[in-house]
Structure formats: C-alpha cells, structure tokens
Design goal:
By secondary structure, this protein is α/β, with parallel strands linked by helices. It is 48% helix and 9% strand.
Length: 877
C-alpha cells in the first residue's frame, strides 16, 4: 500500500443561546432563537431560573460531586464521541471469572499465584504482582500459568459493566487481560473489534459502527495461541519497547492530548507506559475537554498527583459513576429536541469549531508574539492583532454571493511560507463567527468524511469550513465538491496552500466556484494597512520613524517584495536566530533537552507538521514541557504547542534550524522520527492520509533525503527498511535515489520490488517507467531498447490503473514525452523510430483528449505544444 452547563446561557451579539458552548460545539435546542439586545436583560433572569430547575437532574453534580462546568464538558464530550475510555483492574473488580472465582486487584492476584505455584515468597515480595508472575513463569509448574490466566480471565460474567458500553466512546483501552468488556457486547449496537498490543495497528474509520477495544497488556482468551504475549513482569514491560507496536504508539499519541476517562486505574507501575502516564493529560489545554480519573478510593496525595498530571480526580466506584453519566445523558435526551447527530460526531473527529469568546479560550496555551514573525494563532485574530487586507473583503463577497445557488464555492489563497495565508483564513473565520456563523477548522490529522460533512450542512447550512494548508487533502475536496453538486448542497469554504502546490489544488476544486487569491506580493494598499497596524501597536522596530511611502519603497527595492524578509528586518528576528545558534552550539540550563526538542521539531516542522506529543515526550526525558516553554526558559521565545504537538516560531525558522545541523545529526533525527511514526503507518492510515503517514512520506522523499544526507542517503534507507520495507513508496523513493546516483541495477530492482508489493497502484508503475527510460537513455546497447519499451509499458499500465480509479495524472505522459525526445536521438534506437513515432502519436492523442490532465503552466502556456513542436523538429533533421 502507498503511502453551559445546559442550564446556562451564552449571549453572543443579538442571539440568545440556551446552552454553554464548549470547544467542540454546542448542543442545539429548540429554545435557540434571535432577539433584540433591548430585551436581553428582561429574558436573562427567566432563562437562569429555568436553568436552575434543569440543574436538579444532574447526577454527576449531585451524586458524584463534579462541578457544573466539568459535568457539562464531560456530558457534551461523551455524547459527541470525543472521549476515549481507559480501564484498569478496578473496572473489572467483582466480576466472576471463567473458573468461577471473583476478579480482584493486583495484590490479591499476586497472593493467589504465590500460593498456587508454591513460590514461598516473603510478605513483601508476595504482594508484588510483576515479581510473583515472573517467578511463576520460571517455576517448575510454569506450563500451568497460561492455563490459569486463561481460565480465570476468559468467559467472565459482568456485574454492572454493561453500563460502560452505553456511551459512544471513541475507543476503549484496557490495562486488563480479561474479556469483561467483550462479554457486554449485547449492551451496544456497535460492532466490537478486539485488539491486543501485538496486533497490527488499525486506524479508526470515521463512518464505521466499529468500537475498537485494545488490550495493552494482552488478552486472556488468546493465551492458548503460542504467539500470544501478556505484559505482567518487568522484563516483559522492558521487552515491549523492542517490538515498538503501533497500538502503544497510538495510545501515547492520544493519551497526552485527547480527552480520556480513566476508570479503576491508579496509573502506577505501568512500566511500559510510565513516561506518557507521568506526562499526563493536556487535553483541556490542547483540545478544550478535561480528562477524568475515577477511583473508588482516593487519597489527597493521589488527587494532587492527578491534578499535576492534568486529570480531574473523581472518588466513586465505577457503577455509580457510569450510572450517573448514563442517567444525565438520558435526561438530556428528554430535554432537547435536537441531539448531536452522527454526522456531527464524524465532523468533530476531523474539525474543531472556532470560538470567538475570549473567556472560553484555553488559558494555559502559550501565545507567541505575532509581530515577531510567529505563525498565526487563533488568539492573534481574536485579539485583533492582524491587519485587514483587501483579500478578506473579496473573499467574503464571493462566499456570500448568490446564496440560492447550490454550487460549492471556495476561496483559494496561495503564497509562500509566512506570507499571511493562515492569517487570512483565520480573519475570514473570525468575521463569520462574529456574525453567528458556525466556523469549522479542519485539523488536518487525517482525511475527513465527505458525506458526513454534507449531511451536517443539510441540517446546518449556515456553516463555513476552513482548510488551511490543504494540498495533502485536496483530493478529499474534489470528492466533496462532486458530492455537493450531486446532492444540491451549498458548501462554503476557504482553502490555503503554498504556491508550488497551487496547480494541483486548483485542479481538485475546478468544479466549484473558486476565487483565487495569491497573497504575494502584497499590493501597496495592503502593505500600507499592515504598516499602519504595526505602527498603531508600536511594533515597527527599526522602521518606527519611517514614512509609509519610504517603507514601501524599501520593501520593493531592498527586499524584493518579500514580506518575511522585511518583517524580520524590523525587530528580534536576528536575536531569535542567534538564540538558536547558541542553543545548538553551547546549550546551557535545560539546554541539552531543549536543544533536542528544537532539533526534533525542526526535522518535521520544516514540512509544516508539529512534532507529535508522544515523540516530544520521549525526547524531554522527564523535564516538564510546560517548564521548558515557560517565561525565561530555553524555549520561551522559540517554540509553542498547538493541538497536535510542538512547533517552532514558523516553518522558515525550522528550516533555518535544520540547515544549522551537521549531516550526522540530520541523519539521526530523520531516522529517529521516521522509526517513531512508522508503527502508525499501515495501509489504512496511508489511504486516510494520517499525520504519521504524511510525516514519513516527506522524510523518505528521495530528493529531501539526498539534499539532507548526500552520500549517506542509501545507508539511511537501509536503516529504515525493517519498519518501512512493506510499503511500496519506500522502494519507489529508494529506486529514484538509486537512479539519480546512476546505480542502474539497484534502481531497477527497487522499482520492481515496489510493483511486487503493490502492483495495482499507479505510482509504482510510473516509477518503474521513469527508471527504465532513464536507463534506456544512458546505455548504448540492446538493453537500452529493452528497458525503453518496458518503461513505456509500465507508464501505460500506470495510466490504465489511474483511469480505473477515476483519476489520471500528467506524470506518465511527461515522463514518456521527455525521455522519448532524448531516446529518439540515440543511434541505438535507429531501427525503433517508426515504432516510437507511432507510440508518440498515440500518447499525444490521449493527452489532448483527456479532460482530467492539466498541462497548462502558471503563465497559461500548454507544455504539450512544446513537446509536439520538438518532436516535429526532429523529423526535419
């Protein structure tokens, strides 16, 4: 495979909303209506009184002790499918095992194993389950251990655990080896799929009824399989790292940034997960929803520790907690006419709603200095730091025009790094949100479900969608446009991309009404607006005394209309770069860890990706990321976190950092990160275009590898083969590198390997075609002719496969035309020219007839005309 509480009310402009919005969006109610501001003060007390009566039914508040805001966030998030569930031993306590004995805690189990296997451990040792288990595993009766565990923890009889499955959990993760959850399958209409930690990682399908249950330490019903592995002993915890399974990587990725409910687990002595558990949850700061730990017994020191780790600690047994949760959600079902729909749940997995209320913004999220060339953040726009340029007005007019027409309309904004594309998109989002429009921001973590988006818009047509840096997902936009035309649904969106990817993105949006805006270079009027905004904020730095006319003249003549260079000349840019160089050359306090985080982040942020939290967590080696980013610390002015991980000031800044490293460090960091994300790259994550796939795709791109590593490039691929060798793209890139290095036999062999792995994909055939045609034009023997025609056939097969899937690309055509023009001049092809001429005419005819191909260059020139002109000129020679 290739690669509020519900009783509260929020007042916004002239609309009264009878709910408390949270970052993933409000519950819609029939009481939502518009009123004039003159009657707000009269209605507000009535709404509060009505809210007080609703408040009485919240069992999570009255019986469990949660605050109203926390209870509301939990109810909303669980209803929206935003929460994952992590189960520990306490969640199964009291169930009856398959051998008729009750399931108990770790200490009781340790005592039982000690007695059963006659280990005769002393009192201190016999309570240590990892130690007892390890000794039993090596005792003379070791063959009985697996049988004992399988009988005890299989075919379990639940007590109250059916309550667990009453909610739409994102996933259920379990530290237990029992099958209690699976034995409750009748309590949910969803299809339960069980995974153990050694199974191949499988990404969630957004539009599926599947509920994934992942056992991180093994699964008792499978212990009869000789390949089955459980994690009980310390040696097994340690050995887990050697296998680097994808499920543990996915858990680490999710746990530190997405909302969780942890039930019956103290999060201690889980040695294989120790670093991520200690790192804790940052879901409230990074996603808006808090995470919870539910324990029957809870000491003050435990509560304090959980608070440090980002959890809200709840003292309750599982049955009481889940009963209250289910009752409150059921009560909300009775109160509200319109519930969160399936389509909305799917959107919430891929988008977030942008909220303009400053009071609801995460207070712990660091805001960088916008005027110091930092990447645009939502709070920069909420705080009105940006300049309103002409593009914004033109886009709004275009998106708002002809509202009765059901033709999808998009604004497509292009430009280079730090040119203002994201700022434009965020400003448009703010303008719409300010007038009551629901604005959805695409997270870019994987492909979104196009039909779910349309289904949602059918019920909520006053929505706008923002797709920042969308080039990797523009094929989804093509599908969205086609479906919206078929179903007569008006979609409005803003998409941004870098200039070098504009043509392909524009092609994918061609059936929609598109307003295309290139933000570079700024017009004089827009430059003056930017100048005046910075002047008003006192942020012109070295240009403070300059007139706008003089500044414009300098911007044109000295800086060649390059905005980033002009902005960096104002203030601080050189200081930031000096700080990086000092950190790289001579790290000081926290310096080694800060340096490692900067280098690791630069390795992928130069491509536009955040360093995933679970990788940053491994790099920080016990140091607090928040401390390192705090005021006065090593990373304070250099880095920040977003919803997906760690980033430096901007992408250009990351490129500067990366260029400052030696080849040895580049080699090490590229390999380390590629191997870290590799477990999460499987065929389905490739088709979903998940972030791990996109990261590794850029890291293994042969041109990037060659540029970074030079003569060490092939060795780098060899070091990655054990985790990426299943992927045809890995062999394609390796083949193209070998071809560039004139290693014919390796290039040919690698290209054939790619086809052997995934022969029904167009790209490996294009790669083989290019490799063969290059060989054909560099040899002067019969092999050249043989490789030429083999290459032509591979390119033809690429076309056939692409057309069968409803798509077609220019690459096979361009490869054929460019290499055939070279080959036909060679003496070895003298006897092949008639056949080559016939092939040329066939390919040219197909290229001109296809409506899916785009040979137009940026200046409107058709490159096909050049190919044909050059071909005809050969005939006259």
């Amino acid at each position: 495979m290739r690669w509020g509480s519900w009783s509260g009310c929020a007042l916004k402009t002239t609309r009264i909303q009878a709910y408390e919005p949270v970052p993933w969006g409000p519950l819609r109610t029939k009481t939502q209506h518009s009123v004039t501001t003159s009657v707000m003060s009269a209605i507000l007390p009535l709404l509060r009184a009505a809210g007080a009566s609703q408040r009485e039914n919240m069992k999570l508040v009255d019986e469990i002790g949660l605050s109203e805001s926390d209870a509301t966030s939990l109810l909303q998030g669980v209803s929206d499918g935003a929460y994952s569930l992590l189960l520990g031993a306490g969640a199964s306590y009291g169930c009856i095992g398959g051998d008729g004995e009750a399931l108990k805690g770790a200490i009781d189990l340790a005592h039982e194993i000690n007695d059963l296997f006659q280990l005769e451990l002393d009192e201190s040792e016999r309570s240590n389950l990892p130690l007892v288990y390890n000794d039993a595993k090596r005792s003379s009766n070791k063959g009985k251990l697996s049988s004992f565990l399988e009988q005890r923890f299989s075919r379990c009889e639940p007590v109250w655990q059916q309550l667990i499955l009453g909610q739409p959990w994102k996933r259920i993760w379990s530290l237990n080896i029992d099958d209690v959850v699976e034995r409750c399958r009748s309590a949910t209409p969803r299809r339960i799929t069980t995974f153990t930690w050694t199974d191949q990682f499988k990404p969630r399908e957004l539009n599926s009824d599947e509920l994934q249950v992942i056992h991180l330490h093994g699964y008792a019903p499978r212990l009869s399989d000789p390949a089955a592995q459980v994690i009980f002993s310390i040696s097994e915890y340690a050995g887990r790292f050697e296998l680097a399974p994808g499920w543990h990587a996915e858990f680490r990725s999710e746990f530190c940034q997405k909302p969780f409910v942890v039930c019956g687990a103290k999060l201690q002595e889980e040695y294989d997960l120790a670093t991520v558990l200690e790192f804790g949850s940052h879901s409230k700061a990074r996603g808006g929803a808090p995470s919870f730990v539910v324990l029957k017994e809870l000491t003050k020191s435990q509560s304090d520790r959980f608070a440090r780790q980002g959890f809200i600690a709840v003292r309750a047994n599982g049955q009481t907690f889940f009963d209250a949760l289910q009752a409150d959600i059921a009560a909300s079902d009775r109160k509200y006419d319109q519930r969160v729909t399936f389509a909305r749940n799917q959107l919430l997995a891929s988008f977030k709603i942008l909220d303009i209320d400053r009071s609801r913004q995460p207070t712990s999220k660091k805001i960088l200095d916008f005027y110091a060339c930092a990447e645009a953040q939502w709070m920069h726009i909420v705080n009105d730091l940006d300049a309103r340029i002409g593009i914004n007005d033109r886009i709004k007019v275009s998106l708002d025009s002809a509202p009765d027409e059901k033709i999808p309309r998009f604004a497509l904004v292009s430009g280079g790094p730090i040119s203002g594309k994201t700022t434009v998109a965020l400003r448009i989002a703010h303008e719409y949100a300010s007038r009551g429009t629901e604005v959805w921001w695409f997270r870019g973590e994987q492909k979104f479900d196009e039909q779910s988006l349309l289904d949602y818009v059918k019920g909520q047509p006053n929505s706008v969608f923002i797709f920042d840096d969308c080039a990797d997902f523009s094929s989804s936009l093509r599908t969205l446009v086609s479906l919206s035309l078929e179903q007569g649904v008006l979609i409005r969106g803003v998409a941004t991309c870098e200039s070098h990817r504009l043509r392909a993105t524009e092609s994918d949006l061609e059936k929609s009404r598109v307003i295309k805006e290139n933000i570079e270079p700024l017009t004089r009027q827009d430059f003056e607006r930017l100048f005046e905004k910075r002047k008003a904020k006192g942020r012109l730095g070295t240009k403070s005394s300059m007139s706008v006319a003089a500044a414009w003249k300098e911007y044109k003549s000295t800086y060649g209309l390059k905005l980033l260079e002009w902005l960096e000349s104002l203030e601080n840019a050189s200081a930031y770069r000096d700080a990086i160089l000092n950190l790289i050359k001579s790290p000081a306090h926290h310096g080694e860890i800060a340096r490692a985080l900067v280098c690791g982040t630069a390795a992928i942020h130069r491509f536009g990706f955040s360093l995933p939290f679970y990788i940053a967590d491994e790099i920080r080696r016990g140091e607090s990321l928040e401390v390192l980013l705090g005021e006065g610390e090593a990373l304070y002015e250099l880095a920040f976190v977003d919803d997906r991980g760690l980033r430096l000031r901007n992408k250009s800044f990351s490129t500067f950092v990366w260029k400052s490293l030696c080849v040895t460090e580049k080699y090490s960091w590229a390999l380390k990160i590629a191997r870290a994300v590799a477990p999460l790259v499987v065929p389905r994550s490739v088709s979903q275009r998940s972030t791990p796939y996109l990261i590794i795709r850029e890291l293994m791109d042969w041109e990037n590898v060659k540029h970074d590593l030079g003569g060490d490039s092939e060795r780098w691929y060899a070091d990655l083969e054990d985790v990426c060798g299943w992927n045809s793209r890995f062999w394609e890139q390796r083949a193209l590198l070998a071809s560039d290095q004139k290693s014919e036999s390796f290039a040919y062999s690698y290209a054939k390997k790619a086809i052997a792995l995934h022969g029904r994909d167009a790209f490996p055939h294009t790669t083989l075609g290019k490799v063969c045609l290059k060989i054909a034009t560099t040899r002067n023997d019969a092999v050249a002719v043989e490789r030429y025609w083999e290459g032509v056939e591979a390119l033809r097969e690429s076309r056939v496969i692409a057309l069968s899937s409803g798509t077609e690309w220019e690459h096979p055509y361009i490869t054929f035309f460019s290499y055939t023009l070279r080959a036909v001049r060679l003496a070895v092809f003298a006897k092949e020219r008639e056949r080559m001429s016939q092939a040329w005419n066939d390919w040219m005819r197909s290229a001109k007839a296809s409506r899916n191909l785009h040979f137009l260059e940026d200046n409107g020139h058709n490159s096909l005309d050049d190919y044909q002109r050059n071909w005809l000129s050969l005939a006259s020679e």
